[in-house]
Write a sequence for this structure.
């Protein structure tokens, strides 16, 4: 499998859209993203570009960003449970 650290430069590949509107994702890109046949991908239009990611990639990015928004030692799960109990009128 190709790892991000293995790709030191941006790689750009030209491809065509077939009559059915399908695009073949090159093997190198699929390996880099860890995409296999049947996997679900997330497509996003942003700044006039189509971005393709995996759910796992999005989760990992969220995990990397979360610490700067959460105080050390705070359990978000516990906070959510407490919030739900308060909303339900429990103590």
């Amino acid at each position: 499998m190709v790892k991000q650290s293995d790709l030191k430069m941006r790689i750009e590949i030209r491809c065509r859209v077939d009559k059915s509107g399908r695009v073949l994702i090159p093997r190198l890109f699929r390996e880099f993203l860890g995409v296999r046949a049947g996997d679900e991908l997330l497509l996003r239009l942003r700044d006039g570009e189509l971005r393709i990611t995996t759910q796992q990639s999005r989760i990992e990015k969220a995990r990397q960003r979360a610490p700067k928004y959460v105080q050390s030692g705070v359990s978000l799960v516990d906070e959510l449970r407490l919030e739900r109990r308060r909303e339900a009128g429990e103590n």
Remarks:
- The mean pLDDT is 86.
- Helices lie at 27-33, 55-65, 76-87.
- The CA atoms of residues 4 and 91 lie 48 Å apart.
